[in-house]
């Protein structure tokens, strides 16, 4: 049985959409138990009794605009996010899922769950969609602005294990986001990272990948610093949403077009939406920690949060932490 700790009060649409996502996950997965942390009175209208759901009451939680997560961790220790995280630290749960403020989740992860000894940094690592239905891992998408080549190498090793275990890719290709595909392109960080990854046998280095190729690249893992990758991810999501709006406008601006859509194109448009919809992914793992932490989208609806729970469950089942630890320890022995 997999047991997850869930922050019931994190997110723009908490607690309603969080609770509904939890109940959907319990309905879908028979091997799942959930510890739900939050204000029981506020969650009550959306809750229903379930033998695999335990509600732990706290009326304290973090605002989505929280600017001082360290201060909150000191003076607001009973906040729903922090209680859920301590449950994982104390082995009462296998992983945590939260749609709360990203900075607070990253800081609390560092201070409560702690970084893996073999990892020099942690990274926010969403699984991103593509136009070919191929899932890719993008990191770091926001945890670190300043990185060194060896940090990106750690991320490549971690993401390679996740790609093998979770995405079932036998020999995942690692790409480096850059302004051009040729060796020697980009900043000093990019040039040095290219050289380091090229000479590392533990990963399958694909080479540089231009941002225009994100949605159809052959690479299974895309690496960059937190600023660059975050911009790339948000640009991709924004473009997908805008394209969807344009299609909807153009295909429904007359009765005849609406009829055509209804008769012939409904399934195709639904498939298009699912291909690029971030709600289908659910969230991003925080790679490099001693336990699984999944950051769901702040604006998650019930289905998106359910997918965040699904992702955390699958990461636990795949024993990603154990596999990464063994590989990194092996690398240290050979240095």
TrEMBL record:
Major enzyme class: transferase
Species the sequence originates in: Alteracholeplasma palmae (strain ATCC 49389 / J233)
Matches recorded under InterPro entries: FA_synthesis (IPR003664), Phospholipid_synth_PlsX-like (IPR012281)
A single cellular component GO annotation: cytoplasm
Keywords: Acyltransferase, Cytoplasm, Lipid biosynthesis, Lipid metabolism, Phospholipid biosynthesis, Phospholipid metabolism, Transferase
Subunit structure, as described in the record: Homodimer. Probably interacts with PlsY.
Family: Belongs to the PlsX family.
Pathway where this protein functions: Lipid metabolism; phospholipid metabolism
Cell location: Cytoplasm
Stated name of the protein: Phosphate acyltransferase
EC number: 2.3.1.274
Principal subcellular localisation of the protein: cytoplasm
Catalytic activity: a fatty acyl-[ACP] + phosphate = an acyl phosphate + holo-[ACP]
């Amino acid at each position: 049985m997999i047991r997850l700790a869930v922050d019931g009060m994190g997110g723009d649409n908490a607690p309603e959409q969080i609770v509904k996502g939890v109940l959907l996950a319990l309905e879908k997965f028979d091997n799942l138990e959930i510890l739900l942390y939050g204000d029981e009175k506020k969650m009550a209208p959306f809750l229903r009794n379930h033998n695999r759901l335990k509600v732990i009451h706290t009326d304290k939680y973090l605002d989505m605009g929280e600017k001082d997560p360290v201060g909150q961790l000191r003076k607001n220790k009973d906040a729903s996010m922090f209680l859920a995280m301590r449950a994982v630290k104390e082995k009462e749960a296998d992983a945590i899922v939260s749609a709360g403020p990203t900075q607070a989740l990253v800081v609390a992860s560092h201070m409560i769950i702690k970084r893996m000894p073999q990892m020099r940094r942690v990274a926010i690592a969403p699984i991103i969609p593509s136009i070919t239905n191929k899932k890719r891992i993008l990191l770091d998408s926001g945890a670190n602005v300043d990185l060194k080549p060896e940090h990106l190498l750690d991320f490549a090793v971690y993401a390679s294990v996740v790609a093998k275990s979770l995405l079932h890719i036998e020999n995942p290709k690692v790409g480096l986001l850059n302004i051009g595909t040729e060796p020697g392109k980009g900043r000093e960080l990019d040039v040095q990272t290219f050289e380091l990854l090229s000479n590392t046998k533990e990963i399958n280095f694909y080479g540089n990948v231009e941002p225009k190729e994100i949605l159809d690249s052959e690479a299974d893992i895309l690496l960059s610093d937190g600023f660059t990758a975050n911009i790339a991810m948000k640009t991709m999501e924004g473009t997908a949403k805008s394209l969807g709006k344009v299609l909807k406008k153009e295909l429904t601006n007359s009765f005849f077009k609406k009829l055509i859509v209804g008769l012939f194109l409904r399934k195709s448009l639904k498939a298009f939406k699912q291909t690029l919809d971030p709600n289908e992914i659910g969230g991003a793992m925080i790679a490099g920690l001693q336990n699984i932490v999944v950051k769901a989208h702040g604006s998650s609806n019930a289905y998106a949060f359910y997918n965040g729970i699904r992702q955390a469950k699958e990461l636990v089942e795949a024993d990603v932490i154990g596999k990464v630890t063994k590989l990194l320890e092996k690398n240290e022995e050979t240095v």
